[in-house]
Design brief:
202 residues, alpha+beta, 8-stranded mixed sheet, 7 helices, globular
Length: 202
C-alpha cells in the first residue's frame, strides 16, 4: 500500500453532522459553546468572551494548521446548518502512521447525541480507511470522568496515566491516554454504526 499524502483538512459528511475545515465564520457560530464554563472546564483555553477572543482562538488554530501541528475542524449540525463544536487531528506522524483526535468539544445540548457519535465515526473512518493509520490516540484530563467514559464507550483501550503531565490553566494535570488500533477498528465501526441506528443514535 502506498503511503498517503500529508494530512489535509477533510470535509466529512454523515446523516447528522458535517466536519469541515474550521473557518472564522464557523468559529463565531461557536460563541455560546466557547463561553460555556462547563464545556470549557477541561480544555486548554478558558471560556472565550466576545468576538476578539474567539477570533484570536481561530487565528491560532489556523496558524498551527499552517505549521503542520494540527488539522482543526468545525462540527456542523446538519439539521440547523450551524457549527455546534470543533475537533482536531494532532500529533500527526506519517512515518509511524499515527494520529491523535483531540481538542474536541461540542455544545452542551448535544452531549450524548448522534452528532457526537457520528463525528467520531466519520473521523475514525477517515483516519483508518482513507489515511491508512495504524493507531489513533485520544487523551483527556484525569479529572474529566465524563470524557473518559465517552472514550471508553467508543471501544478505545485505556493505556495508562501520565502523572502531573502538563499544566493547564494553572493546574498540573494527569493525562489519561487511550488508543484504537487498525485491527480493532472494524468491530468499533460496527458498534458505532449500530449505536447510530438505535433511537437517538446515542
Amino acid at each position: 500500500m502506498s503511503r498517503p499524502e500529508p494530512f489535509a483538512a477533510p470535509t466529512l459528511v454523515g446523516r447528522y453532522v458535517r466536519l469541515e475545515p474550521l473557518s472564522l465564520d464557523r468559529a463565531r457560530e461557536l460563541a455560546p459553546a466557547l463561553a460555556d464554563e462547563e464545556v470549557c472546564r477541561y480544555l486548554f483555553w478558558a471560556p472565550l468572551r466576545g468576538a476578539a477572543e474567539i477570533d484570536a482562538w481561530c487565528a491560532q488554530a489556523t496558524a498551527d494548521a499552517r505549521a503542520g501541528l494540527c488539522v482543526p475542524l468545525a462540527t456542523i449540525d446538519l439539521a440547523s446548518g450551524r457549527a455546534v463544536g470543533s475537533t482536531r487531528l494532532l500529533d500527526i506522524s506519517q512515518r509511524d502512521r499515527r494520529v491523535e483526535i483531540g481538542s474536541t468539544f461540542v455544545a452542551r445540548e448535544h452531549w450524548r447525541s448522534a452528532i457526537n457519535t457520528e463525528s467520531k465515526l466519520l473521523l475514525l473512518s477517515h483516519c483508518f480507511e482513507q489515511r491508512a493509520c495504524l493507531r489513533v490516540a485520544l487523551k483527556t484530563d484525569g479529572r474529566n470522568l465524563r470524557s473518559q467514559q465517552a472514550i471508553e464507550r467508543l471501544g478505545a483501550k485505556r493505556e495508562g496515566t501520565l502523572r502531573a503531565h502538563m499544566n493547564v490553566k494553572g493546574f498540573q494535570r494527569d493525562t489519561v491516554y487511550f488508543s484504537i488500533l487498525a485491527d480493532e477498528w472494524p468491530a468499533i465501526r460496527a458498534r458505532l454504526e449500530a449505536k447510530l441506528a438505535a433511537p437517538r443514535g446515542a
